[in-house]
Design brief:
mainly alpha, 0% strand, membrane, DoxX protein, transmembrane, transmembrane helix
Amino acid sequence: MTPLSTQDRLDGVALLVLRLGLVWFIFLWAAHKIITPAQYQGLAQHYDGVSLDNAQTYALAGAQIAICLLALFGIMRLFSYGALLVMHFFTVTRRLDGFLDPFALNERGFPIHRNQVIDLAVLAAMIALILLIRRDNFSIGGWLRRRAGTFKWWM
């Protein structure tokens, strides 16, 4: 295994920071499903017309947290990073109305759709993480790839 160049280390650190931030973002949403399941159940009913009980909500949160842990350590990177992207994309599709009116204000003058703008930035960051997966050197998958000497999509 050859040592990393300075540029490879910088790229790896940048992607580590990006990955940690994105995992934390999704983890918070998943953890809130455990902390306040009724809130998520109300959202699922409102946006998707789906009724969930506590056990289903906890199971969904558990699966999301498991994916967050895989992504946190960079294990099965294409799967775990892709799953983060799919989870977030699902949320983005539920809030399309805010993209059509990004400057809407409530009666007190507060912007009501600015979270949708944040959603787009996070979605772009997740796409970038996947596109730069070969430069993700400070992950278990990156370490395995360097050790094997070749890129393998499942790492």
